[in-house]
Amino acid sequence: MAYVINDTCVSCGSCAGECPVNAISQGDGKYEIDADACISCGTCAGVCPTGAISEG
């Protein structure tokens, strides 16, 4: 199951910088995870300072 980013995202970019498959990009002001590209490794959730990322 792919990870998702909720509204507590502060757009710091930490998650995008750590994603090993580049599945995270900045959308309309906030970051978004491409569910098709996400390998569910959890790296992004581990580096998110606000806890905005969880399994969807």
From TrEMBL:
<dbReference type="GO" id="GO:0046872">
    <property type="term" value="F:metal ion binding"/>
</dbReference>
<comment type="function">
    <text>Ferredoxins are iron-sulfur proteins that transfer electrons in a wide variety of metabolic reactions.</text>
</comment>
<keyword id="KW-0411">Iron-sulfur</keyword>
<keyword id="KW-0408">Iron</keyword>
<protein>
    <recommendedName>
        <fullName>Ferredoxin</fullName>
    </recommendedName>
</protein>
<keyword id="KW-0677">Repeat</keyword>
<dbReference type="GO" id="GO:0005737">
    <property type="term" value="C:cytoplasm"/>
</dbReference>
<feature type="domain" description="4Fe-4S ferredoxin-type">
    <location>
        <begin position="1"/>
        <end position="28"/>
    </location>
</feature>
<feature type="domain" description="4Fe-4S ferredoxin-type">
    <location>
        <begin position="29"/>
        <end position="56"/>
    </location>
</feature>
<keyword id="KW-0249">Electron transport</keyword>
<keyword id="KW-0004">4Fe-4S</keyword>
<dbReference type="InterPro" id="IPR017896">
    <property type="entry name" value="4Fe4S_Fe-S-bd"/>
</dbReference>
<dbReference type="InterPro" id="IPR050157">
    <property type="entry name" value="PSI_iron-sulfur_center"/>
</dbReference>
<keyword id="KW-0813">Transport</keyword>
<dbReference type="GO" id="GO:0051539">
    <property type="term" value="F:4 iron, 4 sulfur cluster binding"/>
</dbReference>
<keyword id="KW-0479">Metal-binding</keyword>
<dbReference type="InterPro" id="IPR017900">
    <property type="entry name" value="4Fe4S_Fe_S_CS"/>
</dbReference>
<dbReference type="Pfam" id="PF14697">
    <property type="entry name" value="Fer4_21"/>
</dbReference>
